[in-house]
Amino acid sequence: MRAWMTAAYPICRSISGDGVRGTLDLLADVLPDGATLERTGVPSGTQVFDWTIADEWNVREAWVRGPDGQRVVDLADHTLHLVGYSAPVHARVPLEELRRHLHSLPDRPDWIPYRTSYYHRDWGFCLRHRDLQGLPPGDYEVLVDATLEPGELVYGEVVLPGSTDGEVLVSSHVCHPSLANDNLSGLAVATELLRLLAARPERRHTYRFLFAPGTIGSLTWLSRNTDRLDRIRHGLVITGLAGGGPLVYKQTLRGTRTVDDAAAHVVRARGGEVRPYAPWGYDERQFNAVGFDLPVGRLTRTPHGEYPEYHTSADDLAFVGDDELVDALDALVEIVDVLEGDATYANLSPFGEPQLGRHGLYPTTGGHSADQEVMAMLWTLGLSDGITSLLEVAARSGLPFADVRAAADRLCAAGLLGPRPQAERSATNRASDPIEPKTSPVKSSSSTVTP
Amino acid sequence: MRAWMTAAYPICRSISGDGVRGTLDLLADVLPDGATLERTGVPSGTQVFDWTIADEWNVREAWVRGPDGQRVVDLADHTLHLVGYSAPVHARVPLEELRRHLHSLPDRPDWIPYRTSYYHRDWGFCLRHRDLQGLPPGDYEVLVDATLEPGELVYGEVVLPGSTDGEVLVSSHVCHPSLANDNLSGLAVATELLRLLAARPERRHTYRFLFAPGTIGSLTWLSRNTDRLDRIRHGLVITGLAGGGPLVYKQTLRGTRTVDDAAAHVVRARGGEVRPYAPWGYDERQFNAVGFDLPVGRLTRTPHGEYPEYHTSADDLAFVGDDELVDALDALVEIVDVLEGDATYANLSPFGEPQLGRHGLYPTTGGHSADQEVMAMLWTLGLSDGITSLLEVAARSGLPFADVRAAADRLCAAGLLGPRPQAERSATNRASDPIEPKTSPVKSSSSTVTP
Amino acid sequence: MRAWMTAAYPICRSISGDGVRGTLDLLADVLPDGATLERTGVPSGTQVFDWTIADEWNVREAWVRGPDGQRVVDLADHTLHLVGYSAPVHARVPLEELRRHLHSLPDRPDWIPYRTSYYHRDWGFCLRHRDLQGLPPGDYEVLVDATLEPGELVYGEVVLPGSTDGEVLVSSHVCHPSLANDNLSGLAVATELLRLLAARPERRHTYRFLFAPGTIGSLTWLSRNTDRLDRIRHGLVITGLAGGGPLVYKQTLRGTRTVDDAAAHVVRARGGEVRPYAPWGYDERQFNAVGFDLPVGRLTRTPHGEYPEYHTSADDLAFVGDDELVDALDALVEIVDVLEGDATYANLSPFGEPQLGRHGLYPTTGGHSADQEVMAMLWTLGLSDGITSLLEVAARSGLPFADVRAAADRLCAAGLLGPRPQAERSATNRASDPIEPKTSPVKSSSSTVTP
After folding, report:
1. I want to staple C397 with a disulfide (CB 3.0 to 4.6 A). Which of A109, A413, C85, C379 is the partner?
2. Prediction ipTM score
3. Contact residues, C window 379-418, toward B, CB-based 8 Å cutoff
4. Region Disordered: which residues (chains A, B, C) (predicted)?
5. Domains and their CATH numbers in chain B
6. CA C230 to centroid of chain Cα atoms
């Protein structure tokens, strides 16, 4: 992940142009055998819902030369120096006029800010406030050797087919220039997750990785897939997975999706935090717009805007810890394991506790307290009414999902757990009523049965 | 408000009689042009649900003269000196017998208590405990020159018509004698609210102000309006708006009415408190009786019985702070603004976030964090599914309702928000499902949709 | 209760055999006139759901003699010395082999542990660790003069008929040897409760007391009553009612049964604790298995496994406090009183507060704050809409159930409360809507109406 980020860091990315293409090339380079990056290019001028795809932006050179002829700002030094989507210009301007095009951070005089102007044609440079203050009066030569012309918006997708058509969408934006946490961290971890999933002999869900420019990119993808959106069963926007702080899961619009429960279960057990949905942030706000209402949450560490390095040159490769990337990857694998492993079973020996010992599942000397493995089996048997899912069993019992899943496997193998046998169960009086787990009140409220 | 209270303070009010008539006169005097106080008189003996309207009580003079011929208690000094509804008497009684008719507060020897005996024919006087203890032995002359005869119970109403028949009921009791917080404060603030509402060019709801004697007055009004009670959409009993402490909103019987949400939103933001319903207090207990079950909450400051000055002569004009009245009035105006402004819209550009900049609604340079105005627009767009109301948007977002209402106005003007377009929305897969806001679980539980 | 426990303590009980029979004899001895202990014997080998009834176990003598011929462990000294269901043996074994059959508690060297081996044929002895360490090397003579032969599993039932067929099940296990808290305390308190209930002139519910061996005993009872389980309206497993700590109520699987609300109301008011269901513990885990899903909670003091004396010789008669037994009995009587007294009424004077004074129910001088008796009447009138139960009134008001029940009795006698009069109520606009009390959200969610 470190190597990939180091290679991708210097590229001058924006929402269109060769920077995105180059980054997709780097992603394609590290894909495992059998996985293909499929690219889609959509022409400038195409209407995408309320938006229009802008002209493609490419830049060759951009600098400001001082009264003494020395370059005071140069895109070649740092991709953040140029305001994204700056229009071409070559002019000589006095300092006073130049300053209206310069952006700096007075509070952080050593950091270069990140600015863009996608939908307002303008040009500008970003620089350290310390450097800005040192600019002598006089005339400055400004060059932005860029093209802003009809072209295309490009995004990439990698699909790992599963045994069902139901998809898990993993989306990570690909439009930010030399900013390491936001979002090379997301791209690097997504790619590694993709490699781990590709190596699995079996996948229940189909996994779709989307690498698209922020906002307009995800909207464009949505606009070209409106008839297939109902395939998305779960989704995660992943970005900003390093830079300090615990993992933070942001819920979907409804906050009651399976991905919300799965991510909350994993993230909280790892000391992370769960936050309610808010209609700003990254591309989750597009997926969760009321017209789409997709079950897509978001995983970050400290969210955007809450750390000072956000959208500045201080978000560099040193800002991203290797252990943070590994921890985020581990959490994602655990979330995927929940999504893959969650299922609903019926206790096939529902009339009282089965004699676990007889099935080779229990210590034979009584009087001891049940150990965690036995507890996981008892919880799974005790709540599996054909309606309550394993994830709900994990939530109510406080046990890790993996333990509950393992217990379910042992019980299935022993013939004590399986699909709900309709005929048998209807023989008893209340067996058809669902259980209402106290720990998931939202879910249970819909399954309330009044006697 | 201060001037009105000062004028109304000396009047000897009770649940019937000229004191109520005189107070209604004072209220009529300060009504704005076009607003009329309509009075209703209902004869003594009329059956009102479980109650019967008592004879009308009027008193000319009432005093106790000591053994030395000096008056030791005199209604002319303070209206609280006479027990309300005291029967006429003129007698000479020894001190021992007199004491059985005297009420004082041993713990507050300088305060006169407030006592009534509406439904048990008796007479009595209230006095400072200090004075009671100084009474010498001997014979006392007692005079209560009162009439307790068939007459009528009187209440007043002012109606400000709105563009709909749906009514907001504002009720304030008019039966307490010289007690300033309970309830001249309620009457003064209600009148001022009435003036502010009358001055509005437009009102969505019809506003009905009810000035009636406590309990029997509101019951009489209810008995004469049973066929029109379904017009009451929201209601507030207002009383005790001064005397210290934060604002306290008492919920309706159900606790889930719009007025509960509106008042909670406003009162909590002002540092006030929300309490659940309890079946005692002021007239809210009549409006919320199970047979009526009207959506009427109550606004006070420290509630009755929780401050020592309650129902004593210490609840005088000095006990009522001008700033408290103004603050209560402000809160009421805010609650009214919510009731007037709350509505449910549909995002007309629901497929992803609209390009606010293109509609003139967004700063054009990206990279900054959204300011509060933009946040209000994003929340309103993000939750407006044609089911979720603006008040729910405010509750979930934590934004003031006024900001959300202003955002909705801007978005409506820009064509991004409007009534739900049935045909269009049915084209997408889940667009017809309601959003379940986490922050209003009671509401959301009814809109749970399992995919 | 103390005398009964003292008599029952020395008996060597297990899940079958003469110990159970002898204990049932002792229970039968203390039954009140008219109450009969009905015994059921089910043959060994009978299939009971996933289980098979084991051979019956009886033991005459069991000891270990040391190299010097002295008995080092002897069942005659303490029933815990022999592992329950030990197979017959008479052998001479060296110390090393003997040790594999000995159980002790290194951390509690003076206590004898309790062990059983019901379903794994073996023999063993339990002894003080101090004694274990003092055993000299050499050959030991081991005798277990026991029979493990086809016989029967025995349980006893006492039924106190009520005015309805609906049953309250009170279950207490009868299989533990000389352990006083677990479970002579449960048996003693159950018997005393039975005597108190038998003495009542009237019982609304039928009470069924079940005295059965743990797990296999309750399963056997369930297997023979599958067609009658729907009669069980409420139930409690009672055990471990002494030994320190506050009362602890463990909820049913659903946690929303009437017995859950009743027990929570009583136990919390007495400073006790309410815990959610977990699928292990005593026989509640059989009654709450998904196939039965019966409304049976559990009452204990500090639960099994949470006190060091659990399943050791330290759980002796001195470990059980008389005051603890009396307190537990009082709590059970209160819970029974709730189950007997809970009912749903309609306010027959629902249009405003009735004039309590006119009905002889209210102090006649106004201006005082309502006392607790009046509060209970006002709450009962204020919430009795024909749907909300008295227990819900108690929960929402915070008043003891007994006060609410007494208020309902007074109001019924005064004709203010009674069965819901259908015709009258339909005359008002919203009277048919249920009330949703904020304080019992689980219940109220079931009365949610989806538009």
Report:
1. C379
2. 0.89
3. 379, 381-385, 396-397
4. 419-451
5. 2-54+152-341 (3.40.630.10), 57-149 (3.50.30.90), 344-445 (1.10.10.10)
6. 19
